Amino acid sequence: MKILSFTFETALHFSEPVSEHSFVLRCLPKNTPSQTVMDSQAIISPRTPVANQTDGFGNRLQIGRIEAAHDEFSFISTGLVVVDAAHIEGEDAQNAEKGPLASGPYGASAHPIYANPSTFAAADAAMRAFAQEASAEASGPWSIAQALSHAVHERLAYVKDVTDVSTTASQAFALGSGVCQDFAHVLIALLRSLGIPARYVNGLIVGEGATHAWVEMHDGVQWRGIDPTHDRPIDDTYIVLSHGRDFADCAIESGVFRGGARQDQRVAVQVFDQASQQ
C-alpha cells in the first residue's frame, strides 16, 4: 500500500482567440477496489462554473463552457490517493455499470461491452493469429494476459509522433510502433480476440512526467491491471483517472469551440510516494 500525492497540469494555447468553448474533463481520480481518493480538486482557467458528474463508466466528469473569447485554457488537478493493488476485490458492488454479463470463457462477471471489438481496439486477421501464437503456452486468463503483454512489448517500438489519437490497434500493430495509447489498444484487441474482456485505463504513474495508458483485463473473478508499455503488472505506483472500452470513452480532456485556431498543448505531471518524501 502507498499514499501518493499528485499534481497534473494541462495548458492549451490557441493561435487566435476562440469562444463558445464547451469542455469535458476526466482529470480527477475515482475510488476503485484498489484506490481510495483522500482528497482531490481541479482548478480551471479561465474561471467558469463547472458541473461535477459521473459518466456511465463511473468516471468523474468536470463539464463546463466558456462563452467569452480566450486564447489560453488550462486545468490543474491535485490530490492524495491511497493505492493498494495487492488487495483488489470484485468490482461489481462499486461499479456504476449495469447490464447482462459477458458470455465469453473468462467473462463471468464482466460487462459484455468489454469482450467485443470497439472503435480503436478491434483485432484483424493478423492480430488474431498473433494472439493465438503468443499465448499458445499460457494457461488461464492472467497467464495469457502476461504472455500477450510481453509479446506486444517486444513487437512494438515506443516512438512518439508516428501515431495520433485517431490511430487504431490494427494500424499501430501493422506499423510496429507507437506510444502507450497504442500499446494499450493493441493488447486490448488481442485479449478480446481470445474471449478475455479488457478495457482501457488512463492515469498517472510515480516518476513519469506525463499521463499514461494501460490495460485492465477480467480474469473471471476480478479486474487486474497490466502495462504493456513497461511489460509489468500494475502496482501501487499507478493512479487511475478513467477507464472505458478504449480511448474514445475516457479521454482526459475533450471539447469543441467556435473558431479556426490551432492548438498547442503542454502537460506536466508529478506523482510522489509520500513515504519517500518523509
TrEMBL record:
Name of the protein in its database record: Transglutaminase family protein
Which InterPro entries does the UniProt record give?
Answer: Bac_transglu_N (IPR013589), Papain-like_cys_pep_sf (IPR038765), Transglutaminase-like (IPR002931)
Per the UniProt record, one Pfam family is Transglut_core
Record domain Transglutaminase-like: where: 172-230
Lineage at the top is: Bacteria, Bacillati, Actinomycetota, Coriobacteriia, Eggerthellales
